[in-house]
């Protein structure tokens, strides 16, 4: 009984101080426009999902109040650590995205630049499993980059 009371007091204390799980907090301010045209190349679906979670929506170019154009997406996989036997132990995956928001053809603010990095363990004996793991990590990184871009859109001023 005392354990349950202690746990409930701790959870109330955490919620009172503003603690929230990743993805549960929402944006601190609203997006300047609610209807966005997404020209996102490799991360268009992730951007559309992030806009939807931020109370925005992805629409056609004709319906859009503003647009977000992904100008560059760069992926890199570098050796992060090696063992004493000179075998690869970890890779460092890096995703760099540059985007620009537009309203009626005019840029809104400065270009948005986001870099996301993840370390991935590597083992020669598990190549097929590691390929699937790497694909999942890349998808997660695209989603994180899209969330960061949408978060930065909320700081732009509507014209």
How does this structure look, described?
The chain is α/β, with parallel strands linked by helices and 159 residues long. It has one domain: 2-Layer Sandwich (Double Stranded RNA Binding Domain), CATH 3.30.160.150. The chain is built from three helices and five strands, in the order H-E-H-E-E-E-E-H. The chain has a five-stranded mixed β-sheet, covered by helices on one side. A hairpin with a 5-residue loop joins strand 3 and strand 4. It is flat and about 60 Å long. The model has no long low-confidence stretch (mean pLDDT 87). It comes from Neisseria weaveri.
- Main sheet summary: 5 strands, mixed
H/I helix tally: 3
Average pLDDT number: 87
| Strand residue percentage | 35-45%
Please write the CATH class name: Alpha Beta
List the SSEs and their pairings:
Elements: H1 2-16, E1 35-39, H2 44-53, E2 57-58, E3 66-82, E4 88-103, E5 106-121, H3 127-153
Parallel strand pairs: 1-2, 1-3
Antiparallel strand pairs: 3-4, 4-5
Helix pairs in contact: 2-3
């Amino acid at each position: 009984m005392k354990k349950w009371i202690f746990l409930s007091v701790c959870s109330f204390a955490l919620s009172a101080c503003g603690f929230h799980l990743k993805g549960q907090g929402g944006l601190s301010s609203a997006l300047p426009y609610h209807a966005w045209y997404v020209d996102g190349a490799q991360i268009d679906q992730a951007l559309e999902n992030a806009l939807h979670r931020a109370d925005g929506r992805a629409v056609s170019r004709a319906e859009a109040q503003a647009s977000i154009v992904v100008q560059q997406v760069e992926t890199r996989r570098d050796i992060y650590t090696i063992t004493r036997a000179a075998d690869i132990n970890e890779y460092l995956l890096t995703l760099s995205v540059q985007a620009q928001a537009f309203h009626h053809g005019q840029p809104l603010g400065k270009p948005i630049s986001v870099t996301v990095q993840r370390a991935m363990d590597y083992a020669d004996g598990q190549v097929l499993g590691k390929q699937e793991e790497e694909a999942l990590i890349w998808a997660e990184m695209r989603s994180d980059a899209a969330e960061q871009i949408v978060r930065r859109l909320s700081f732009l001023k509507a014209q």
